[in-house]
């Protein structure tokens, strides 16, 4: 049994003070991933700082942005009238994740911080550069059916497992972070990292920082949208490939469009080239097919996940068609 100290705090300031005091301390929110990591011996924090009593559960509109506190639960966000009305893509993506029970306790901040579900990462007998830098990547020539096809490195081909984050990157969300001295704002697309030479780092959160809220601009993307998740089971399974698609049509032309994928990279993967191609064009199957081909330009498979090279463009096309059918 691994012993750890449990601490509880009620303000962000005191939570950060406790965190910086001890580099083996971790924040505990919903704990839906952290406790698994501890049970498997992947991580062994000496202190768990329970942050659940910090008042960061707000879901509200402030000016032209929707603010979501880092400790709002996944289900509270997904079921909130404001989110269902103004950011339905986010609601749909959240409901595609995990199970109802997990969504009730998992928080928005925790969802962002969850770690890859690569099996080698969770098996402490296996080589894994993410868990233990320099030991190699078991998945590279091993069982890599769930792994990345975009932005991979020679050190790690893991994917980020979140559905929520795919919608957030598509919706141009921003993350508000705080340390003992100041707040800073980061574009959501810059929060998660590619593996590169430092696969042990999942994101750009600094060691003395805490996520306090998301800010998402209100948009006109609440009519034609879809989150399509392809997975091995109908529920409680991570994405093989997922696509967040939303667009606005005026005079039969696409005037604004957002496309992002999950299950394909170390971070939520925005499809900027496909978006640029589709802007100003008609929402036709031919244009959707060309956009999907553009998205695949730099994709590569690793054997077990080669099927994603076909599944991914097909999922993009299907998500766009389903978004269009809501007109
Ligand atoms: Fe570890 Fe990444 Fe390789 Fe998985 S893909 S074994 S997480 S280094």
Topology:
Blueprint: E1 5-8, H1 12-21, E2 25-28, H2 34-39, E3 47-50, E4 59-62, E5 65-69, H3 74-79, H4 81-86, H5 88-96, H6 100-105, H7 108-113, H8 119-122, H9 164-170, E6 174-178, E7 183-187, E8 210-217, E9 224-231, E10 239-250, E11 253-262, E12 269-270, H10 272-278, H11 285-295, H12 308-324
Parallel strand pairs: 1-3, 2-3
Antiparallel strand pairs: 4-5, 5-8, 6-7, 6-8, 9-10, 10-11, 11-12
Bound molecules: iron/sulfur cluster.
From the structure above, extract its key features.
single chain; 327 residues; alpha+beta; Uridine Diphospho-n-acetylenolpyruvylglucosamine Reductase, domain 2; Enolase-like, domain 1; 5-stranded antiparallel β-sheet; 12 helices; binds iron/sulfur cluster
Could you walk me through the main structural features you see in this protein, from its secondary elements to its overall organization?
- With 327 residues, this protein is of the alpha+beta class.
- Among the domains are: 5-52, Uridine Diphospho-n-acetylenolpyruvylglucosamine Reductase, domain 2, CATH 3.30.43.10; 224-324, Enolase-like, domain 1, CATH 3.30.390.50.
- The chain is built from twelve helices and twelve strands.
- The protein has helices spanning 12-21, 34-39, 74-79, 81-86, 88-96, 100-105, 108-113, 119-122, 164-170, 272-278, 285-295, 308-324; strands spanning 5-8, 25-28, 47-50, 59-62, 65-69, 174-178, 183-187, 210-217, 224-231, 239-250, 253-262, 269-270.
- Strands 4-5-8-6-7 form a five-stranded antiparallel sheet, with no helix packed on it.
- Helix 5 packs antiparallel against helix 9 (164-170), helix 10 (272-278) packs antiparallel against helix 11 (285-295) and helix 11 (285-295) runs antiparallel to helix 12.
- The longest helix has 17 residues, at 308-324.
- It starts with a strand and ends with a helix.
- The model has no long low-confidence stretch (mean pLDDT 97).
- It binds iron/sulfur cluster (SF4).
- Residues 116, 118, 120-121, 128-130, 137-139, 156-158, 199 line the site of iron/sulfur cluster (SF4).
- The site of iron/sulfur cluster has 14 residues, from helix 8.
